[in-house]
């Protein structure tokens, strides 16, 4: 298998996972929630995903560092403020929340497997390579941050 580290843009991975979720939704298995509660939860998760994603981009822009997930080695600053004090990967967490919201909208419990695929892929091929780049760039500062803040939430 070719090296997939930091090769595919995360929004494309999320779109692929959304397609997988859509396909999985044709299998049996509905959420045991009343319609209104399920839709309300979907809206809340989608909104949280937007806030995390936008918050992550804003924090990067304020720090004047790259937002390009395909070239983490070009980061000029270790961003630890804003939403980054709660998650080391708020933009990816936001995408995962959108995918959970999509599964809720489709009323498919089994479709959550698509979210698990997304999280697993992102951790292995995007986040861990980014962490290696941050370790090389920021050393002990990144180690302290990593010890203090969780990878996802």
From TrEMBL:
GO terms for molecular function: transferase activity. It is a multi-pass membrane protein. Pfam families: PEMT. The chain crosses the membrane at residues 12-33, 40-60, 95-122. InterPro entries: Phopholipid_MeTrfase (IPR007318). It is found in: Endomembrane system. Keywords: Membrane, Transmembrane, Transmembrane helix. Its main location: membrane. The keyword Chloroplast does not apply. GO terms for cellular component: endomembrane system. This is Isoprenylcysteine carboxyl methyltransferase.
């Amino acid at each position: 298998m070719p090296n997939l580290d930091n090769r595919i843009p995360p929004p494309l991975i999320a779109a692929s996972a959304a397609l997988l979720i859509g396909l999985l939704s044709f299998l049996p298995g509905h959420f045991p929630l009343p319609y209104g509660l399920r839709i309300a939860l979907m809206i809340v998760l989608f909104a949280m995903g937007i806030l995390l994603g936008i918050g992550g981009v804003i924090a990067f822009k304020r720090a004047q560092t790259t937002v390009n997930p395909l070239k983490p080695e070009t980061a000029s600053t270790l961003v630890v403020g804003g939403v980054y004090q709660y998650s080391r990967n708020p933009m990816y967490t936001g995408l995962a929340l959108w995918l959970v919201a999509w599964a809720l909208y489709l009323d498919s419990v089994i479709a959550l497997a698509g979210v698990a695929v997304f999280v697993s892929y992102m951790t292995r091929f995007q986040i861990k390579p980014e962490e290696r780049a941050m370790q090389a760039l920021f050393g002990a500062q990144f180690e302290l941050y990593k010890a203090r803040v969780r990878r996802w939430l």
